Amino acid sequence: MRKVFCIGELLIDFVAENQGSNLSRAQQFTRKAGGAPANVAAAISKLGGQSAFIGCVGEDPFGTFLQHTLESQGADTRYLQRSSTFTTMAFVSIAEDGERDFVFSRGADRELKYLPSVKEDFKGNLIHLGAATALLGGPLEAAYNHYFFDALTCGAFISFDPNFRQDLWKNREADFVKKCTPFIEKANLCKFSLEEAQLLSGAEDTMEACNLLHQKGVEIIVVTLGKDGTLLSMGERKTVVPSIPVKAVDTTGAGDAFIGCLLQQLARTDNPLQVGQDFDALASMVRVANAAGALTTTGFGAIESLPDRQQLQQALA
Ligand code: ADP
Q1: What's the predicted TM-score (pTM) here?
Q2: Residue 76: which CATH number?
Q3: Does the beta carbon of 88 lie inside 6 Å of ligand 1?
Q4: CA-225 nearest atom, ligand 1
Q5: pLDDT, tens digit, 9 for 90 and up, residues 251-276
Q6: Which residue range forms the structural domain that includes residue 234?
Q7: Does 301 sit in the ligand 1 pocket, CB within 6 Å?
């Protein structure tokens, strides 16, 4: 079985308990492991695949908690780095008007170092790049670009998720689009939300957006559409793959479970680089990944509500 290396941020989300209030009034917070690429690594391992996480946390109790959380899901943490800077934290509350009130305390995730020795381990494997904080500058961005280059030059299958966070790119959207371009040009697979596909292509219409994004270079595009499933686009061929009906209570991590499940299936094929030639095979993998996304919405939190293989098989039966 091939391994999926997930690169990006791992952080603590402090979620305000008294939702409906803004952060200035929030008094109680629940600590959750967060960071989209880390969720993807957890999703892959929980489904029985092999994953490794490359990122940086602090040499503090929060960093230890995050490392243990990933390990408890079966993800390989040997590439996890620890820095003397405090672990990155995000404080979140949903205010009365539905707007997210958000404070980001950026710490150790920014400090990821590039280690040339990792390239050897990339060979024959899959690399998933999640970009939420990786393109914000600093050592992480430099390391991330190096790892991307290594993945390209050793011929690994590359997956990219821009993970656009409005809070982090206020008034700098054009910069975000520019920084994502090389990844869209060179990745084998890109996962977008509808909003991301529109932002990154500059087109409102979903089909047109996909076509413009394909023109940049990416062969396989999946656009996640919440309860409506996923649009799979491979050049001329496009289809919306429906999801399964569920009672959703919290959509956090659904996209990460989806892409994790898709990558876990790709890792089991003889040659993931050739899957782009088989539209129907990919569509059936997307169907399974939709169910993984759907199941994640039925519980609170991201990692806590990821399905295991048995739960996934039951939901598909
Ligand atoms: P993202 O985090 O990328 O915005 P989505 O919320 O669209 O992700 O969820 C990812 C996938 O999970 C969707 O493409 C869909 O297949 C599935 N999913 C999400 N929400 C639901 C839901 N309410 N009902 C059924 N499936 C869902």
Answers
A1: 0.97
A2: 3.40.1190.20
A3: no
A4: 7
A5: 889 999 999 999 999 999 999 999 87
A6: 3-316
A7: no
